[in-house]
Structure formats: structure tokens, C-alpha cells
Amino acid sequence: MSASNASTTGVPAITSFPSRRLNLWAEKIWRVAGAVNVRTKILGMVLALTTMLGLAVTWQVRAVMTSVFADELENRGVSVAGDLASRSIDPILLNDTYALHQLLRETVLNHPDALYAFVLDPRGEVLAHTFGDEGFPVALLNPDGIEMSYNMHGAIRHWVYNSNEGLVHEMIAPIMDGKAGVVRLGLTEKRLQAIIDVVTGQMLLTTLAVAMAGIVAAMILTWLLTRPILDLVKTTQAVGRGDLQARAPHWAEDEIGTLANAFNQMVAELEASQRAIAEKEQARHMLLKKLITAQEEERKRIARELHDGVGQVLTSLMVGIRTLQRSDVAQQEERIDELCMIAGETLEQVRTLSRELRPSLLDDLGLAAALERHASEFARAYPGVQIDLHCALSGRLPTPTETALYRIVQEAMTNAARHGKATVISVLIGQRNDSVQAIVEDNGAGFDVDAVRRRQSSVGIFGMSERAELLGGTLDIESSADGTTVYAEIPL
Amino acid sequence: MKRLPRSCTLLIVGWLLIAAAGLSGCSLGLTTNAAPFIDLQERTPLPVAAPAEVAHLRMGVAAILSPQGTMTSYSALAEYLSRKLGRPVDLVQRRTYAEFNELVERGEVELAFICTNSYVVGAEKFGMELLLAPEIGGESVYYSQLIVPANSPAQSMADLRGKVFAFTDPMSFTGHIYPTYLVQQLGETPETFFRRTFYTYSHDRAIEAVANGVADGAAVDSLVLDYALQRKPGMSERLRIVHKSEAFGIPPVVVPPTLPPRQKAQLRELLLTMHEEVEGRIVLHDLGVDRFIEIDDAAYDGVRRLVQATGIR
Questions:
Q1: Looking at the complex, does the CB of residue B31 fall below 8 Å from at least one CB of chain A?
Q2: Residue B309 or A145, more confident
Q3: Chain A: closest CA distance from residue B46 (Å)
Q4: pLDDT at residue A457, as a whole number
Q5: Is B20 on the interface with A (CB under 8 A)?
Q6: Per the CATH hierarchy, to which homologous superfamily does domain A366-491 belong?
Q7: Which of A101, A248, A299, A302 has the fewest CB atoms within 10 Å, measured from its CB?
Q8: May I ask the CATH class of domain B57-136+251-297?
Q9: Which helix (H) or strand (E) holds B133?
Q10: Which residue has the higher pLDDT, B285 or B31?
């Protein structure tokens, strides 16, 4: 389901979650993440990491500080309230309201978190307080929520209420077990909250600074990462425009470096193959030229052959037949024999000419028979050359293959005898694994194969290769001072 | 610098939003539970205490004990009297004997437990009237006892020369007049005899001062000392009595001269019969007293003689 979805939208499915919704989300995220460039991705990662780390640490520190400060405030409140309760005993019992007021006032002044303090007598009347002249917040006398939530610290009650001064922790300490009244001390969280806020602010600033440093680091990292890639892109474009000399600079031994190496190697191979193609093209061009020339030569030779041989003979036959009209019977007998012999020679000449043009045996009896005939004719033409021919074919081959092999062997033998001055030529034709091989080995002088190929002077060698390659085969030539071997292999 | 691409800006804005969300989550108070709200700005003058419907009996106790000690010891008596009289009894204390005598003189207390010298002075000055005196162990006498820390080598007042001495109250007989008398017997004055003296303004504090080594010696009311040695664990190991005076009349219960005779009679009757009922006996036991008895002014002649001898007023 998800795979088909992804393929229809053209975005590759990177993950496959069991839920379709998850897959849709993954797809959406990937669409956004995939659309931004590497710089943004790295920047995003760095920012995400620093921000998350900074926020998590800030949150954690804040939570710990909050809890520690709350405990500390509570403990301090309890100890101050307890102290206040014991120090209020004498002023209360001696009815020294001024001393009691001073005690409360100084306690509140000396404790930065203390908001107020007041003392109630056992009847619940306020004996002294620190609210000053403007009156007393009477709502404090009978607070609503106090019975719902308070903690006991020994005899001291602690409860928390909200006020226009923020959250207030109130400690209620009995004086002389309540016989002399209670003292109530209000502590505000404001100062501690401010400290926490300052610390939080500092940590956030640090996070911001680290994030900024992260951005710079990410920029450098991005530059380091993308520079080789961009160079590679530039090189690719240059190669695309046809500049096969272009090479990607190798920056580092990392994956991108490996990619650049592979790319450079590819371009080098491309260049080599391009050069080979160009060479081949040039050779082909020359071959064509030579073929045309050869064709003309061949036509000239045939024309000459026809004109000089067959034409002359036919002319003399024609003259002989004219003279036969006019000669006597005795002479006629002799003359006819002579003319028959001339016609027979002419027929032989025409046949030879025809066979040279194309051996009919190849079409009629196949490669083996054609080569047998060629070998015997070759032996007649080059009497000093010994020829070993082994043809191991199970049956007829396709006509193009037979023609190609026949011509390749013919050319190789001619070269061996003509150029190599070989005395022994061994020809081996065999069939193996859906292909047919021809090996022509001689003991001639040999030649520099590469030099000949490079010079593109030998139409013969190029022609052999072309014939093999046209049929999807290969042709290799090995040559040394001891002789030359031509291997041709054509798939069936 | 090159302008950041739009997607990049979006990313940054996104992270800032997350940061803001994280912070807002943090900005709670130290305490998170829902607390009730009290408006501290809304202030009103404190309500004036309504005048008591029933007149309170004001029972004064002089600072023989510390205010806390007095409260502990006498609150039961106050409650008892309150129940018997059917009206609230306020326990009134003052820091010094002198201040307290003024209260009695002005009639601001209707019943007072005071020191012998305070009575001697008050009777002479404004006719302070004896009501009763406590009886302990069949006697109505007490002593001044000279105490030193348990580890002190002192054996008598003479050994305390050049030491730090704690007086209780300038008007105290046992805590000031009697030790002054002893020093005078040695031919000296406290100012020259002791290196330094100070007032604790109650006997229990003087005992604490000696026990804690704040003072090298003090003279205290035998009744208070006995009470402290009985009630405070470990106190007897921390101090030593080196001298006990002759017997003097016990600190009395007095009334101001202005108290109506009927009320005086009612109070006398109440206190005199306390020991006859269980409830009263419990209160008396807490005070360390067996019962209250009638006493004659002559019982305080010994005190008068010594006061005159020292010349302290």
C-alpha cells in the first residue's frame, strides 16, 4: 500500500511503518527534508542537537533548583518561625507589645524572603504585625484553604497560598504550645524565583551562544563537505560538455574522495574508449576508401582479364571461325580442333575468374570443403609452403559466419606467405560452446601488431577484425619473431 | 554573507518555537498545586476588641520565675480561680519587681504573688496588704541559697571573689539583698568584690546561668531551686549549693489596699480552702505548695532587718 503510494507520488519510500498514517508522515517529513540542501540539513541537525540539549539541561536544572529552593525555603521558614515563636514568649507574657513588634519587624527585615509576620493571642486577636499603619489584610485571619492542605513540621504548620505578591509560604508556629498564641510568618518565592529565572536566562543565553557557534561550525562543516561534491558536479558538467580531460580534484580519503576517484577513473575509461572509437572510425573510413579503390582495381583487373584474355581469345575464335568458312575441309578439321582448344582455355579462364570472385564451393559444400580447395590452390600458388588444415565442424554454419571465417583464414594465409615468408601454415577450425574458432598459425617472420594497427595501414588486418566484430566475435593476433597466430572466434 | 534559504529560515524559526514552548512549560512556581488566593493589598484597620462583658480578675505574678516558667506554673491556678469565680482570670507579668509593685500600687492587679522584699517595700510605701502565704512541708519559710557550677572549687561566698555573679532582680531579697549582705559581711561591696555582676530578672534564669557556666555563682530562692532540681532532669549534677541562709518568711500573696473587702474575703476564702478538694490539690501540687495559710506581717521582720542592714532600697 505504502510502496504504491510512494511510487505514485514519485518519492521513494524510505521506511515502511506498519501504520499508514505513520507512512504518510514519514513521506511528508522526507519530502521536506529531501527538498532542502545539504547545508540546511547539517544546520538543522546542529541546531536541533544544541537546542534540544540546551533546553533539556535548562529544564532539568530549573526543575532541580525549583525543588531544592522550595525545600530550602520551607526549612528556613520553619526554623525562622520556630525561633520567632520562642523569642515571642517573653514579650507576650510580659505584655511588651513594642518588643514583640520590634522582634517581628527585625525578623522580617533580616530575612530577604520574609513578607510579613504577625502574632495572634490564644483568642485569635492580633497582638503585633508588620503590615504597618495601612491596616491588616483581614483575609489572612481566617483563610479558606488552610485546612485543606498543610504540612506539619513538628508543631509548625506550613501551607501555601496565592496572593498579589505571588505564592506565599506561611509558617504557623504555636507559642508555648499555643498557650501564648501563634506566630505566623509569610515567605515569598519572589527572590528565589528571580534567581531561578536569572539562571535559566543565563543557560538559555549559553544555549543560544552554543547554537550560534554550532551554526558557524555547521557552515564550515558544510563547506568542507559540499566543496568536493560541488567540484565533482562541476567536473561532471565539464565532462557532459565533452571535455574528457576534466578531472575532479581529490580532497580527502573519505567516501567523497573515493567517489571522485571512481568518477575520474570512469572519465579516463570514457576517454580511452572515445579515442578507440575515433581510431576505429578513422580506420573504417580508410577501409572504405581502400575498399572502393580495391573494387575499382578489381573491376580494372576483371576488365583487363576479360579484354586481354577472354576478349582476345574470343576475337581470335571469331577470326578462326571466319577463316574456317573460307578454308578447305582438311584444314577445317585441324582448325576446329584448334578453335575447340582455344574455347576450352577460355572456359578455364572464365572459371578461374569466377572462382576467384567467389568460391561456389563455399555456398554448395560449406566451409570445410571451400578451405580444402583453397589450401590446394594456395599450395599450387606458393609451392614452398606446407599447409596443415584441420577442420572439425559438425555441420554447416550460418552463411555469414562461413564467409567471414573463410575470408579471415584466406587473408591470414596470404599474409603469412606473402609478408611473413612462412614455410609452415597450420589452420585449425573448431566448434566449442556455442562459438566457432579459427586459429591460423605460421612460422613466419612476425610483425609488430600494435604498430600495424596504429598506423592503420593494413586494410587486411582491419578487415579481419571488422568481419569478426560484425558478427559479435573477436579477433586477436599474437606475433613474435617465431611466427604469428591469429585467433578468431565468432559466436553462433 | 549569502542569504539563508527559505527552508533554512523555517527550520530556525521552528526551533525557536520549540525553545519558547519549553520555557513556557518551565515558568511555574516553586509549588505547583492549586493554592487559594488571598488579597494582601486589601487592608482594613484591625477590629478593636470588644469590651469584656464580664470583668476579668487580674492575677499578677512577680518575676520570681521567668515569664515562661510563671506561665507554666500559674496558668493552672488561674484556670482554677476562673472556674471558681465564674469569670476569666488574666495572668499578668512584668519584667522587674519594681514594675510589678507599681501595678499593685495602681490596683491594676487584684491578686499578686510577690517577693518578700517587694512586700516589705510595698507595705511601707503604699500599704500593700498581706492576704495569705503558701505553706510547704508544714512551714512558711524559705531560704536564700548560694549556688555555683558543679565543677567550681568555691566553698563559700569568699571563694567567689573576682568572679562573675548573677543577681536576679534589684528588689529580690534572696537574689540580690541576701548575697549583698554576705559580701558586706566580708567587708566588701558587690561592685569591688565581683569582677562583674548582672541581673537575670528571674530565679530560674539565674539557676540556668550558673548551670551553663555563664555565671560563677548566684543566690536564689530555695523554693525555685527545689522546684528546678525536682523538675529539670540533670540539673542537680550541674550545680552545687555552697551556702544556705537562715529561714525567712515565705513570699506572700498580697492584694492592693484598694481592693474591696468583699472581694478580698472571697479570694482569701477560695485560696484557703483549695487544698480541701481534689481539683485544688492538683493545682497546689503543680505549684509545689501544700496549701495557703494566714500569715502575720511579723513573719517578714527578718527580711526587714536584713534589708536595713544592707541599706538597699
A1: yes
A2: B309
A3: 6
A4: 64
A5: no
A6: Histidine kinase-like ATPase, C-terminal domain (3.30.565.10)
A7: A299
A8: alpha beta
A9: strand B129-135
A10: B285
